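Predict the structure of N-acetyltransferase.
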Amino acid sequence: MLKGKKIYLRSVEKRDVNIFYNYSTDKEIRKFDGGNMIFPSIEYVMQHFDEIMNVSRKTLSIINEKSVLVGYLTYKEFEDTANVYTIGITIGSQFWGRGYGQDSIMVLLDYLFMYRGAQRVELEVVDYNLRAIRCYEKCGFVNEGKKRNRYFSQGNYHDTLIMGILRNEFDKLRLEAIN
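Done. Here is the predicted structure for N-acetyltransferase.
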């Protein structure tokens, strides 16, 4: 278990499936998540739980201070470059604006940089998801470029931003937080 100020992260359990499924089909969340997991039915997820969770992308449940599952994080090491990771996050819309995303990302970054030897962590975010972009910037990510017309949502194509943080940048953030 990985602990932050407002949340803790734990491995996904079968009891999380209903909430994950609800998030994967929530229209408000779908506007922003860049095509994250979507499953045909809750029954499908239950039947294929072990296969779904045994993919190369690791998924962690985000649990708040009231022991409520508020979302999930994913991370994956690039196959062609050691110690470079990509991450993603989904927070239930009813929990937006409470700092759970920022706390979760900081906990995951600490884990990846301090315990997994990451040298770089990156993510991709749709350009109109301003709340997420602000969160990522607070976590130390910098905008490194964009992919044009990368994401289709609400009848239009949208650009996505590539954001990244390097180990030395995260180390500097950690030192500033301590002092």
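The radius of gyration is 16 Å.
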